[in-house]
Amino acid sequence: MKTNSGKKGEGMPVVRNPQFYFREGFCWNLINGTRSENDLKFKFCSPCVNDVGSMKLCSYSDKISSKFLICIGNSDFASRYTEAYVNFTVNFQVNDCRQIPIVIPDSEQLKAFETLFEQAYAIKKKQFQNKITSAKAEEELSVLQQKLDKMVYSLYAI
After folding, report:
1. pTM, whole model, 2 decimals?
2. 8 A C-beta contact, residue 119 and residue 142
3. Residues 77 and 158 sit within 8 Å (Cβ to Cβ)
4. pLDDT by residue (tens digit) across 24-57?
5. Of 70, 61, 62, which is closest to residue 25 (Cα–Cα)?
């Protein structure tokens, strides 16, 4: 798409603002089920094009990474905060996400969050490769979720 953007011919794509596309980032589904039963779930998103059905944001700062933002977005804090102060409906859009307050971590905290992300990512990868069962993955991810929530509440001094 990007290579052929703007070329003449029927069906040729036009990619406007390419700096906002084809970047690594994080995304989530527009529809989240009932918020109290199915919290927000942020996912790693490799370079691609997204639309309103699965919005995508990217970090443009060297002080925070998409991995860090995924951790914050998957925390109990972010789910409770957005339910109470941002949007309790099943539709969670980009402007809703932008209202989650982000505490800038120091380099040590950032590394700890990124390490936790990598551990969770490795578990999901093993699950998708059928190296572990879904039940085993959920068990291992539950332990990481508890650790994540403690780290986030500590970061936010709650």
Report:
1. 0.78
2. no
3. yes
4. 787 777 666 544 454 668 888 877 766 666 677 7
5. 70
